[in-house]
Write a structure and sequence with these properties.
This protein has six helices and no strands. The chain has helices at 2-28, 36-48, 53-74, 82-88, 96-111, 119-135. The protein is elongated, with a radius of gyration of 23 Å. It folds into two domains: 1-30; 36-135, Four Helix Bundle (Hemerythrin (Met), subunit A) (Up-down Bundle), CATH 1.20.120.
């Protein structure tokens, strides 16, 4: 009986030490921080293209979409494509449907010929992507 008690006591001490070490290690895990100033600058560059006609509006949407994808990658989101990353991270965004809408517009621009988008479509897409970047902490 005495040996059983000692073994249980020793096992409990080892378990407690292991859990303590795990807690210490988990607190030291560094979460990636995004460089907000860099993202702000790039997003403003994208917005600047809005006044450059259809080609500029397209460029603005593509650029902003790339920024969101870059932020997701930097934060360690899983998935081989932006679409896969979006599917796996729906809960991280306040308006996942808006982001999908903007990303689909980007895909049309990238894969179809003779795509024409209005200033309003581009503005809406940029606003949706801006909100996504803000949700991730890439923009203020």
């Amino acid at each position: 009986m005495d040996n059983t008690f000692l073994i249980l006591l020793l096992g409990g001490a080892v378990l407690l030490a292991g859990l303590t070490m795990l807690a210490i290690i988990s607190r030291r895990v560094v979460r990636p921080q995004l460089d907000i100033d860099t993202y702000e600058s790039h997003f403003q560059t994208a917005r600047g293209h809005l006044s450059e006609g259809n080609a500029g509006r397209q460029l603005a949407v593509v650029h902003a979409d790339k920024l969101l994808d870059r932020a997701m990658k930097e934060l360690g989101f899983k998935g081989d494509t932006m679409g896969a990353r979006l599917k796996l991270s729906r809960s991280r965004f306040s308006d996942i449907n808006g982001i999908w809408e903007a990303h689909k517009l980007r895909n049309r621009i990238a894969h179809e010929t003779d795509v024409s988008i209005s200033h309003e479509q581009a503005e809406r897409a940029l606003e949706q992507l801006r909100r996504g970047l803000k949700d991730l902490g890439a923009l203020k």
